[in-house]
């Protein structure tokens, strides 16, 4: 058999009191958490070193061939343009750590890259010469139709001494 017992109302804590206590228990850590984040953020921002934002400057240059200009002269002008662009890139922005320059030449409608220059700021300070850091494209001469003058290695054969028919 089961025994039914009645509880006295004074011995039972009403649920409304428990829910108020539980609400306060949840609110107190939340308030502490919210109030502690701002000072923690402020301390980390004042102590931490600032982030350095360095980047590579990329420059594309195009030069036109002048009349009666040979390939070596065009290449010299391309080196001078690359040197000036590298120096300008480093001078304009102190956050630039590397420079990448591509110089293309246009010759009667044909366009081809002639050289690329990739250099870091410390390397450029040590040797500011485009020839040291440039990479030259070997096929640019033929792509731009700067073929060397044809040589006459096969002379025209002399008339043969065969008898002429009568």
Give a verbal description of the structure:
There is one protein chain. This protein is α+β, with helices and mostly antiparallel strands and 166 residues long. 42% of the residues lie in helices and 22% in strands. The protein contains 5 helices and 4 strands, in the order H-E-H-E-E-H-H-E-H. A 4-stranded mixed β-sheet has the order 1-2-3-4. Strand 1, helix 2 and strand 2 form a beta-alpha-beta unit. The N and C termini lie far apart (151 Å).
Mean pLDDT: 81
User: What quaternary form is this?
Assistant: single chain
Q: Whole-Å distance between the termini? A: 151 Å
| Largest sheet descriptor | 4 strands, mixed
Order of helices and strands: HEHEEHHEH
Number of helices: 5
- Give the proportion of residues in helices: 40-55%
Question: Keywords for this structure?
Answer:
166 residues; alpha+beta; 4-stranded mixed sheet; 4 strands
Set out the fold topology.
Elements: H1 15-47, E1 55-64, H2 71-92, E2 96-107, E3 110-120, H3 121-126, H4 130-133, E4 134-136, H5 140-143
Parallel strand pairs: 1-2
Antiparallel strand pairs: 2-3, 3-4
In brief:
The protein contains 5 helices and 4 strands; from the N terminus they run H-E-H-E-E-H-H-E-H.
């Amino acid at each position: 058999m089961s025994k039914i017992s009645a509880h006295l109302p004074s011995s039972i804590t009403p649920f409304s009191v428990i829910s108020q206590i539980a609400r306060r228990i949840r609110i107190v850590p939340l308030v502490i958490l919210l109030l502690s984040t701002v000072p923690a953020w402020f301390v980390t921002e004042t102590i931490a070193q600032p982030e350095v934002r360095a980047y590579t400057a990329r420059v594309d240059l195009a030069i036109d061939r002048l009349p009666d200009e040979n390939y070596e002269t065009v290449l010299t002008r391309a080196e001078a343009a690359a040197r000036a662009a590298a120096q300008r890139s480093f001078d304009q922005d102190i956050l630039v750590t590397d420079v990448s320059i591509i110089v293309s030449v246009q010759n009667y409608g044909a366009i081809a890259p002639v050289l690329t220059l990739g250099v870091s700021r410390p390397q450029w300070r040590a040797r500011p010469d485009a020839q040291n850091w440039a990479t030259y494209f070997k096929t640019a001469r033929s792509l731009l139709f700067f073929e060397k003058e044809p040589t006459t290695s096969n002379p025209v054969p002399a008339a043969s001494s065969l008898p002429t028919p009568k």
